[in-house]
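Example (one chain per record):
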Amino acid sequence: MRKLVATTSAVLLLAGTQAISTSAATAAAPAAPTDVKIAWTDSGKLRISWQDSGEQNYIRAEYPDRNQTMLLDLTTADEPNELVIPGAMLDEDRVRVTVTSRDGTVESAAAPTAWFDARTPAYPFVQDAELLPDLSVRITWKQAVRGADTTPGDPLDRPDSDEWLKTTVQSGEKTQVIPLPPGTSQAILPAVSRPASIRLSTGNEWGTTGKRVDEPTARNVIVGNLTARTTVPAQTTFGTYVPITTSLDEYWCICAEQADYGIPVWLQARANSSTAWRTVGKYTGSTTRPFSTRITSVGGRQFRIWVPARKSISQQAISLTPASSTTARSSSTLAQFRTAGFDVASARAGQLVKLTVDVRPGGTVKGALQRWDGKSWRSVLTVPITKGKATMYIRAAGRGTTTYYRVAVPAMTYYGLPIATTGSKSFKLAVR
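Predicted structure:
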């Protein structure tokens, strides 16, 4: 592309006595470039070079298998006879670069390089992913088998070691790249800071592999956070509901909480910290509002909410959340008095009054009739309770007095679960 030598715009041709005028529009095309070469540079780019007579040049990529020619660049007459481009500008199994010279509006024939391939490795498609007990992530993927090299031994062939495969883990503003051996189909990644997105990619000297239009949708792996919160009353009464309320929070990214529904939630219980957890109720909940996970009270226990590990698969992603649980919350249980009191509220001195007790659970214990002395409850009589029931007669005493009484049962167990010492509601007896 040295400077173009000036030429006249018209040539006078003499043929006998007649003069004929010819314009530049009919000028001959310039000679095609020669010695067209393509090679790798030390920095991993492509250098295209040629020789010409100092014209402007057009450099194109020619793809015969898809009947397409693409302009890579054009150079002016005073620029060097070379073009350096990244390998990612080219693709396909079979391609070559052509160079033409241009003089005004006239272009030379194309001078080509040898045919070569610019193939990247097959796109890695995630087939499965799962969270392991230590919260590491096992990913399985598949890469299609590329066809045979259609240009073996071309001038741009390089060793297979130029191929690379990696995972990119994005967690908030932190990015971690983990190289993987090319040709593998499974990897176990260390536990990541959740929530995180994991993406597979591959490439070689020709650039990063892009998804072709005829290939299925790529999948990322998303590792999220699903946590639970619960409220447990400190004390309940036997046979009534323990009004446990649960809330769930789910995050697939740090940007916003995820609205999700139909999430399995297990209520677990144990007698104390030395016994194993047992699942006592299964529910489904959502992250949009608190929901009830109540259960009948049958004795003092510790409760927790357990959310099993979850996995969902869509065309775009495999989403994983590890199992999570709340901390243990204790709730004691009081006995339930169905009946506790005298058959009358007023009696004459010396009159026998009937005391009836019906308490759950139906244990056999020694209860006590207690009297309020103005400061505390004092036991005045033993009440034998058999299978939760007792009937006895007491002689009214203390003419002109009104006394408040209650029945108390000691601590007991019900199928190994503790029932706390419990007093009934107070009842009174007026003696006249």
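Caption: The CA atoms of residues 165 and 202 lie 4 Å apart.
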